Amino acid sequence: MEENLLQWQAEHRVDTASADWTGLASVRFLCNAMQDTGSRHADALGYGPDDMQRMGIVWVLARLQLRMIRYPLWNDTMSLRTWFAKKGRLMFHRDFRFDNAAGEYLGGATTAWVGFDVKRRRPVRVDALNEEHLHTTTPRAVAEPWRKLPTIESKRYERTFPVFASHLDMSGHVNNASFPDWLLEPLPMDFRVAHHLAAFDIAYQSEAFHANELALQLEPIDENRFIHQITRPSDNTVICTACSTWVRRDHPRSSGWQVKP
To answer: Of 62, 65, 94, 251, which alpha carbon lies 20 to 30 A from 31's?
Structure first.
């Protein structure tokens, strides 16, 4: 951690609960690590969950861009660095960089967060955040600009499932780290054995709550790119939309216990 608090760094070990069936760190693990590290940084700056709760506001993730060259293995220690990137009218951009224990670059992510008024149920400006105080000249972790994600036109796959209490966060709605697993679920296992998730863009569009019945949808763009969507059929609400890009692995990973790069 730097003394001026403009950046925050934390170590995260890929334990048995954090690795997926390939023996590599799961996307959920990366999302949980980002959420925890970003929260601790915000807390150190005076804008953490407790501080925001006193204002009647919670932080809500609106956008995520994830770019991974390589995933840490089971039992590896990952170094995660985060910084406040920029401030828009409503959104605050926070970036992340993933490195292994040797300092080698694994990937990066950019995120956009909004302050959400709990009582009024709407985004609000958080003018208490002083942009100059938080500003850093560190280059963006993902250089690509935010782009509008395509929508599902012809549903090649659809499955419904309920939201359980274990999916909820402290605010009482579905934790943002639950969505990546759901979004990727429709992809065939043989495809995921042979391919590596290189890019994942998610737009979080609405809240989901306990006992909601949600629907997964998937549509291929081409052989290596897909549109993903989660909706709530009861009121035709789109909960989140995503786009994934995959590259073929050098060696298929059908067994996680063969923990080789």
So the answer is: 251
Dihedral through CA 98, CA 246, CA 199, CA 253, nearest 10?
A: -30
* Residues 156-187: tens digit of each pLDDT: 678 899 999 999 988 788 999 999 999 999 99
* CATH number attached to the domain at 147-261: 3.10.129.10
pTM, two decimals, is: 0.91
Alpha helix locations (H) across the chain?
Answer: 27-45, 49-54, 131-134, 179-184, 189-194
Domain ranges in the chain are 1-146, 147-261
Tens of pLDDT, residue by residue over 4-20, are 688 999 999 999 999 99
Q: How many CB atoms lie within 10 A of CB 60?
A: 16
The CATH number for 1-146, chosen from 3.10.129.10, 3.20.20.70, 2.40.50.100, 3.30.450.20, is 3.10.129.10
